[in-house]
Amino acid sequence: MLPVVGQDFKQETTVYIPEHFRVEDRATALAFMRAHPFAILVSATDDGPFATHVPVVIRESGDHLTIRGHVAKANPHWRYLQNEPTCLMIFHGPHAYISPSNYDTQEAVPTWNYGAVHTYGTAKTFTEPEHLLNILHDLIPTFEASYEQQWASLSEAYRQRLLNHIVGFEIAVTKLDAKFKLSQNRTRKEQQQIIDSLSVASDTAVAGTAGLMCEHGLGLKKET
C-alpha cells in the first residue's frame, strides 16, 4: 500500500498484491493514474456496491492528493457519496492474456498481465455553480484544452442548464494500492518473448501491455 505521504510504507492492503507485482513508488502510481484518467468510482450502498465510470483529474498539493470529477445529477451515485463518503476509485490501464507458449518450460499455465491502481478516500459533493465551474476548468484543459474557447462562447443560459444537470465531487485520498502484474516473476528471456508477441497485436490494449512492460524495464532490450 502507498500512503498519500511518503513512498516506502508497507501495510496490509485492501487488494491482493503479491510482492513481485507491488508498486512502492508513489510517483509511478500517480503517473499511471494520470495516463489512465477514465476511472471506476465504487461506493457501498444498502443494496450493495454501486459503480460509475467517470473521467477525473488528479491534483497534488504538498502531501495531499485529491481526485475531482462530476456525475450526472440523474445518477444516484452522488447521493451515495453523501450518505457514505468513504469510497474506492479504480484506475485501470492496458491488459492482455498471456499464453504459456511464451514460456520456455512445458509446465506452465495461462495468465493475464495488467496495471491497476486502487485509491481509497473520503468524498464531498458540490452543486454550487462556482464549484462546478472550478471542476470543469480542471477537466477541460486536461482532456481538450482547445475546447476552452468553445465553452466560453456558449450562452450563459445554456451553460447554466448544463451545470444544473451535474454534481461535482472531490475525493481526499487516504491511501492507494498500485499493482503492475507484468511477468516480473519470469526470466528476462521469457519477458522479451511476451513483449514480442503482444507488441504485434492490433488490439491497442494488448499492444499497450507490451509497452507498459518495456516502460518498467522488463525484457532483454532493457538490459545493459
3D structure, described in words:
There is one protein chain. The protein has 224 residues and is α+β, with helices and mostly antiparallel strands. It has one domain (2-222): Electron Transport, Fmn-binding Protein, Chain A (Pnp Oxidase, Chain A, Roll). The protein contains seven helices and eight strands. The longest helix is centred in the middle third of the chain and has 15 residues, at 129-143. The two termini are 31 Å apart. Residues 5-13 have low confidence and may be disordered.
List keywords for this structure.
Pnp Oxidase, Chain A, single chain
Count of DSSP strands = 8
CATH topology tier name: Pnp Oxidase, Chain A
Integer-rounded radius of gyration: 20 Å
Structural class call reads alpha+beta
Secondary-structure element order, N to C: EHEEEEHEEHHHEHH
Low-confidence stretches: 5-13
Name the CATH architecture.
Roll
The proportion of strand residues reads 25-35%
The DSSP helix count reads 7
End-to-end span in angstroms? 31 Å
Instruction: Report the top-level CATH class.
Output: Mainly Beta
Overall number of domains: 1
How would you name the CATH homologous superfamily? Electron Transport, Fmn-binding Protein, Chain A
Average pLDDT for all residues:
92
Overall 3D form: elongated
Helix content: 25-40%
Largest sheet: 8 strands, antiparallel
